[in-house]
Amino acid sequence: MHCPQGPTYRRTSTAVAPTIVLRIMLLCLSWTVSSLALAGPKAKLIDFWTPSNEQNPTSIDHSEWQEILHKRLDSSHPSGVNRFDYAAVSEAERLQLQAYLKGLQAIDIRDYSRAEQKAFWFNLYNALTVEVILQSYPVESITKLGKRFFSFGPWNDDVAEIAGQKLSLNDIEHGILRPIWPDNRIHYGVNCASIGCPNLAATAFTAANTDSLLDRAARDFVNHSRGVQFKRNKLLVSSIYHWYIEDFGNNDESLVEHLIQYAEQPLATQLRQFDGKIDHDYDWDLNEP
């Protein structure tokens, strides 16, 4: 994005000019930071999290998270977007969520099987995101949060610590989930508390159900207008497919093939016949009722 050039001022404007120029510079910097944030981080493995123990049969208990989802997530909203009722969360439920997150952070997940790990990271990411919203609620959008100067959201903030390692939401998604499991359905499993995001799963992830939940999430998103739609003879898709195109074949043709895999009729036929321009969009409004 090109920032506008500052106007030329006469000497009589010396008191005003610096203020206006400073505002323009701050606006340009804000635009630049936002653009970089929307580019989509690359998957970069954090080696510390690569070990696993396939001989460990232990399952991690996610029942507390399931109880919270059952009470506060509307998975039958007429919009087709699962809505979390942040405003209705009681103090007892908040303490329950915090206890659940504390319990997860007490686990050295490297001692568990790959299947348990994958479910663990999805649940941790989603529960942490809900907690981050609750810490600042009411808030219009997750993009309004973040502790860093000119942050576009809280994704780079440290929000957890496991086995002595501090973790941000970006660490979990782009340093652990994406590089360890090269599965583009990961984008359907992590939720960013926004209308434009794939649904927050109504069922807690487990080693047994992760694959089926990701398949369902992919179908639900692709067949919803915020994921894929035809608008004025153009294909309009979620910006997720733009930010992370490398995970979907790195070109439009491969992306369309991916969408066809999950599309229902008549969308699947439209996609097969499509040969044109792809636009993208995203709704950052909070996923509340």
Describe this structure in words.
Among the domains are: 37 residues; 164 residues, no CATH class. Helices cover 42% and strands 9% of the residues. A three-stranded mixed β-sheet has the order 5-6-7. Helix 3 runs antiparallel to helix 4, helix 4 packs antiparallel against helix 5 and helix 9 packs antiparallel against helix 10. The two termini are 34 Å apart.
Count of DSSP E strands?
Answer: 7
Mean pLDDT: 89
Give me the side-by-side strand order of the main sheet. Answer: 5-6-7
Order of helices and strands: HHEEHHEEHHHEEHHHE
Low-confidence stretches: 1-37
Percentage of residues in helical conformation: 40-55%
Describe the largest sheet. Answer: 3 strands, mixed
Beta fraction: 5-15%
Class by SSE composition: mainly alpha
The termini sit apart by 34 Å
Shape: globular
Number of helical regions: 10
Q: Measured on Cα atoms, how large is the radius of gyration?
A: 21 Å
Task: Write a concise synopsis of the structure shown.
The chain is mainly alpha-helical. The chain has helices at 17-37, 63-72, 91-105, 114-136, 169-180, 186-189, 210-222, 240-243, 252-262, 267-273, and strands at 73-74, 83-84, 158-162, 165-168, 228-231, 234-238, 278-281. The protein has a three-stranded mixed beta sheet with strand order 5-6-7. A two-stranded antiparallel ribbon has the order 1-2.
